[in-house]
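Closing statement on the zinc ion sub-project.
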Amino acid sequence: MAEYEVIIGLEVHAELLTQSKLFCRCSTKFGQEPNTQVCPVCLGLPGTLPVLNSKAVEYTIRAGLALNCTIADISKFDRKNYFYPDLPKAYQVSQFDLPLCREGYIDIATEGGSRRIGINRIHLEEEAGKLMHAGDNIVGAEYSLVDYNRGGIPLIEIVSEPDLRSPEEARLYLDQLKSTLQYIGVSDCKMQEGSLRCDANISLRRKGERGFGVKSEIKNLNSFRAVQRALEYEVKRQRAELEAGATLIPDTRHWDEERGITVQMRTKEEADDYRYFPDPDLMPITIESSWVEEIRATIPELPQARRERFIQEYQLPEYDAQILTVSRELADFFEECVKEYADPKPVSNWIMGELLRVVNPAEDGLGALAITPTHLVSLLKLIDEGTISGSVGKDVFAEMIATGNMPEDIVAAKGLKQISDVDELMAIVEQVIADNPKSVSDYRAGKTKALGFLVGQVMRATKGQANPQKVNELLVKGLEG
Ligand SMILES: [Zn+2]
């Protein structure tokens, strides 16, 4: 059986976080009533003229710099012509031969080491409107509605080189790309709101071959999981076809999430002809290098650099550093904590264990959270001082998240103070010894495991409030005495 190599390239669309649209002053706010954020310009009415939003150009350059691209001196906008109801002008303003950014890269950390994935280009274009079909899908829909609120929102398209070699690498690339765009504040990258979307190109070739195989394009993948699953399916499908001796045809496919398969939408013989031409209403833009340098100066430390610094500066394992730097907010939260608490590893453990159990920083952000770094630091200090045990600490943490109350107040209000008083503990220890003769004789016969059970019984009797170290000491004393 022939060995195949997988070739993947990704096209990622990210909506920019500008306040207003690309060519008019309409709001870009998400989730408003349909068609309330529209004007003659973004509806493409005759006689209107677009005015370029310079913030969108700035954000595109910002993205280009963060992704190691060369920024163009001169760039222009072109009309991409096609007829579809979500596009009232019957053309989309995009960039054809002179995009704003070219030739960048992203380094991804694979199991086999770091791999550099090329970025071919980043261009700026306008978003289309949104169609809603009555019924389950476009085929057989009784009617369709269109919402133009989204039409005209600035969008960047980031086109990778075909450098990705597995669905897993594609996911790593997307993770890294998403967190970079979020760090630099140009996009919120919310896939569930459609502000980040992905198309994937995939082909197979025999190992050692130089040319590319016949490729399929999978459109509109709307979650990272969908990207990975769709690509995994395509690898299997294309390999099976090739092994059966079939001739593949370049095509465009749709990922059917429910059935877990890709479905052919059209073959490339019917390829779209967009008849690009320069937009006569928009002047070419000259980009001053001084402006590019000003933008460069505002770029914060990026995820990869921050991850490496976390390993160096705080002696964290790579795994911890990776997770903590997924979002800028989370990394800031961690660093705020270690400013007030000198031991980074427990801080990292509590964030990764308890905090990330209740919040997903990539999706919801930490903004809605009722607790601050001071809350976590105070809790860690209470544990260190022996005021509460680690296990009670977890309950206090949950209460803190729910109410935003300080841990001291929760401990006081709920009477959760750790019991370290020897007399008080000894009475409970003696009771447990008396109640569990089997475990006691096991322990005395050399089965040291029995001690763990007895410690557990004392902890249970004190609702987790006993100081576990003291319980251990007293039990050993009681059993051997
Ligand atoms: Zn408008």
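The pocket of zinc ion is lined by residues 21, 24, 26, 38-39, 41-42, 152 (CB under 6 Å). With this model delivered, the sub-project is considered complete and its resources will be redirected to Aim 3.
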